[in-house]
Amino acid sequence: MARITLRQLLDHAAERGYGVPAFNINNMEQGLAIMEAAASVNAPVIIQASRGARSYAGDIMLAKMIDALEEMHPQIPLCLHQDHGNDEATCATAIKYGFTSVMMDGSLKADAKTPADYGYNVDITRRVVEMAHWIGASVEGELGVLGSLELGCGEQEDGHGVEGEVSHDQLLTDPEQAVDFVRATRVDALAIAMGTSHGAYKFTRKPDGEILAMHVVEEIHRRLPDIHLVMHGSSSVPQVMQDLFNSFGGEMPQTWGVPIEEIVRGIRHGVRKVNIDTDCRLAMAAMFRKVATENRSEFDPRKFLKPAMDALRDLCRERFEQFGAAGNAPKIKVVPLAEMARRYRSGALDPRIGEMTEAA
Ligand SMILES: [Zn+2]
User: Fold this and answer.
1) How many whole angstroms from 157 Cα to the centroid of ligand 1?
2) 292 found inside a domain
3) 358 within some domain
4) Residue 96 belongs to a domain with what CATH number?
5) Half-sphere exposure (CA, 13 Å, Cβ side) for 209?
6) What is the domain range of residue 33?
7) Among candidate residues 234, 232, 231, 238, the one with its CA nearest the CA of residue 282
């Protein structure tokens, strides 16, 4: 069994200079495809579930499914992560169901749509960190509101996302505040806002520095060289996938995602976890459309799901390779939760704040 914490996995990724894609799941087919991809290239895995996914599949189903995937692939370190936890209860119940990592997104209030102030974010994140670290689980915090710098707004996904207009300031994480936030909360990883947003419609043109602020990643990494950064909304929405979807009756307006080369640049500057959901959905949905269009008499769901799983597997394998995670699974010796908890208590895992910060 190889259930790994986010902290241990990202520490390894930082040592070796790679990034780990974090794929969202809510059903068995996605789980099978992601694990098949990971096993085929020996990559460690982050599987994450949103609150929406937990209510769709049910906590018990999700938990047993992950147990099964782990049993099928005991050689693959698997981190199960709560995506966008909105309050303490969401994070606590996730850990109860076997999640080894939680995101406490205090950039928004518990309704998951109203921007919260900095003090609220620090307080709730710190409380979740204390609770999780007692058990040995990891915590990802978020500073800054995720959304489009082009449009000045966020996008709802699975019932999560800022509502209404958001100022340019809120949409970019302040590097100085990031230092203070990490020091105050002791998070293991930090999600930052730099122009990526959830959903398929991230950019209306190929993104440049105006709308995808990679310099913010670099500035934060310079101040916090040992903190693992997380890029949300980092699907690439490849043109071939849009074209495939549309060629079988889909009506997806032209859109641009986050180019792979920008993600790879982020990985060179401290990005260790890269959240990908839209690409996975699109890969599967395009195949549903293809089967439905090409074989109109087909009614066996497996005939739709199998090619969709194959498409998802190929996409995931490509990301494992592009981010450098491939080949790293056998190099990781998984540390149990209890040992992680002991290390937190001893102070061995306290966040190290960079020297440049102290001088600044
Ligand atoms: Zn997100």
Assistant:
1) 9
2) yes
3) no
4) 3.20.20.70
5) 5
6) 6-349
7) 238
